[in-house]
Amino acid sequence: MFIVDNHIHLGQPGVHVSDYIYKELRKNWTERGFRYHSVEVASEKREVTALVDVMDEAGLDVCCVLAGNWNRVLPPEQRPYNVPNAFVATQVAQSGGRLIGICSVDPIVDPWDAADELERCVRDEDFRGCKLYPTYAHFDPRDKACEPVYEAASALGIPIHFHMGYTPVCGADMKLQQPWLLDEVGRRFPKLKVVVCHMGYPYAEEAMGLVSRHENFHADLSALGFHHPRKVYQLIHDFGCVNSWDRLLYGSENPFMRTFHKTVMSINEVAAEIGMPEIPQDALEHILGGNACRLYRIDRAALGR
Ligand SMILES: [Zn+2]
Prior knowledge:
The protein is of the alpha/beta class. The protein has helices spanning 19-26, 29-32, 48-58, 85-93, 111-125, 134-137, 147-156, 181-188, 204-213, 229-242, 261-265, 267-274, 281-295, 300-303; strands at 4-9, 62-66, 68-69, 82-83, 99-104, 129-132, 160-162, 194-196, 217-220, 248-249.
């Protein structure tokens, strides 16, 4: 099976991500959160060659790697969280096609500069998507300042990933992480491709309903690996009751959460255990890689995998 993890954060601790933010992002998980999944890969090696080795070890074909910058709202003693697009581009360029770059921009600083930077990243550096962080960077995705970025992404045909739902980072604003905030975005920009990260957990049912309303919306499973596999099964099953599984993508949230694609690959063992219907094999193949190939234009033949 061709496996794509659509949600891996780059950034070297102490260089791009302060010790404070790194600890906040991993708060509670290191001790308690990794008990259910057997895959032992929680890569903290952020050098690209080491990362590709880890991918080979784990059985991952391609990973999307995310930029991000929320320095604007961080007090000086908590900074930085700044994983620049340029850093991600250099890592992607060295990966032989195994990494797909997802850039990030801050529409609140300057809406037009943000749109220009997005266009530059896609046209000149082959980024295949853009990540926005409303809850961390304290903005409402319905803010008018975001419109030039949405227009640019629509025209380029690239998806915008929104962090929606849970984060342990206490400085993030909970009122800016609810999936329903994206409904108006979808109605104003019907061609905009959207990925609702983390299936909006703990507002996962709200996210399922949101995705079902907008034909270009998707959800990903990133960070849900802290749950028992029965819960992972239930979320995948329930998503399929209101949406096509063609709009669900596997992602991990590595290095802040453990990689759990093997749990998803064997999720029908859970179905058998609890007497629930199997997730069809073709749907699992789409969730674990096929949908990502379509959304991020991944050329399997060129990769030879
Ligand atoms: Zn993330």
